[in-house]
Here is the input.
Amino acid sequence: MIVYLVRRVGQSLLAVMAMAVLVFIGVFFIGNPVDVLVNPEASQAQIAATVERLGLDRPLYEQFGIFVWNALQGDLGTSFVYGRPALEIILDRLPATMELALVALALSVGIGIPLGVWAGLRPNSIAGRTIMGGSILGFSLPNFWQGMLLILVFAVLLGWLPAGGRGETTEFLGMQVSFLTWDGLSHLILPAINLALFKMSLIIRLARANTREVCMQDYVKFARAKGLSPRRVVLVHVLKNIMIPVVTIIGLELGSMVAFAIVTETVFAWPGMGKLLIDSINLLDRPVIVAYLMLTVLIIVAINLLVDVIYSAIDPRIRLSEMKG
Amino acid sequence: MSALLDVRDLQTHFFTRDGVAKAVDGVSFSLERGQILGLVGESGSGKSVTGFSILGLVDPPGRVAGGQVVFDGDDLIAGGEGMMRTLRGKRIAMIFQDPMMTLNPVLRIDTQMVETVRAHDKVSKSAALARARNALVQVGISSPDERLKSYPHQFSGGMRQRVAIAIALLHKPDLIIADEPTTALDVTIQAQILSEVQKLCAQSGTALIWITHDLAVVSGLADRLAVMYAGRIIEAGPTAAIIANPRHPYTRGLIDSVPQGKRHGAMLTQIKGMTPSLLNLPQGCKFAPRCPRADAACQVEPALTPAGPDRQVRCHHPHADHEATP
Here is the structure.
């Protein structure tokens, strides 16, 4: 197990390195930030001074070398726009995004798995068909449009919930969170639902397909032949087997939810990392873009590592083969 | 003493898009306590579905469409799912064909055994575990404590089938339905499992329905045979009598197609043709198109009629005793 973990961490580091190169080169080519940053009336000399101050006059490999050297010391550069360390700006916004993503994940898993299993157990019932129909809507309607509809219905027409912003926050484990106050929670509900809908649909379909497959297996019939209650057959024998693919998807999707909550955050003016990224791209604030992407890669890599560890906890066959390897 | 199990005119039909497949069509037989019945037939003859029907485990689109399954005086079909569940695993247990598939791959053996004990008896976990351990010892598994903590993939096929048999024995059932339990195993393991099951059933007075396509396996095991073809029983009676003097041409064909030492080097006899599709059965006798003795009379389906002491056959032209194969 330990050997396996070390090997996996090594692979993860390689992925991070490769990503660093790609991100840095990519950002280098998207445009010259100086054009956006300096006053249009600035003289040639002022522009040259700015370029020099930001270190943009050096060749690409030198800039990359400096970036890596600083990154190893925990410094991902200073924002051109805010004049503060890029990492610090992002970490300020991280709790908001994390909170949104985790609540959305809880919603999509907590609702998606039961609905999917239900639809899988009764594929031809009206409820089963309705769930499947709903899930098609869930992931074929564009995310931003779903968000706008949610605002239209619940914020504008009904006036039950606020349309945007984060509301009142309280400190929880050293982070500012919304879900502990009613005001914060009311701001959180709509964006969380918006972010969750797509993933929920995905989980419903995955859980349904797997439930149908597992139910045809002899071991489910054997479990029934042993006289177990239908409840135990579903909750233990079926559920444990469908969790393997579902955990994979949850892992992958959590990463992407944290990293790419951009659309939802923009629609609901949620002050998270995604909104920061959009703003930074508009301003060509290179250090923030690079730092954001690097952090995203780290998060996704870390989650994947975690998923692999959880796998071995739920699938004994994987556990054994890893010990041998 | 009344029979332990009395199956009367059982009908199990599968309602498919292409029509109704009568997988089991009017099967009747009965079984005394401690008796071993061999249910023999080719693939698709309805023998497995008969087994599942008794336990109420037929999956949609199939369902039991008629008949009675009287177990120890109670009609299981009329009793419904609730009654069925109190009996499953408790008084009627089942062993499946493929041991690789019958144990849940993600649950430890002890979990799968303890849950079976506790599904019917309100006992503590440690008491259930002790019973599980005893059952493993009973089926000849060494170091049971270690085995209990293993997962199915750590066992060989034969071992898994032993575990499945141990699970079936946990509640000392009155009846075990074994659906081709040795088909997926090596010949040597097959023989071990066979003699093991025979011994265990004799010890505990458990009745056994042994479903198989292999006459050779069942002839040394069963007290009685029921031969199925296209969802019907076509011949039934004491094993020795049927093996010595099969009445139905199909039974005779099955026996003749078993390799025998004295005919070494000769071609094996085979039954020509294939099992008919259940959706498109011939009129009259279902075996007639493949039968060497078929004639005009076979356009009318024969009834199951007495043929010698305690024997029945469904044929217009049954073989007489010691008649040579045509």
Q: What stands out?
A: The CA atoms of residues 75 and 87 of chain A lie 7 Å apart.
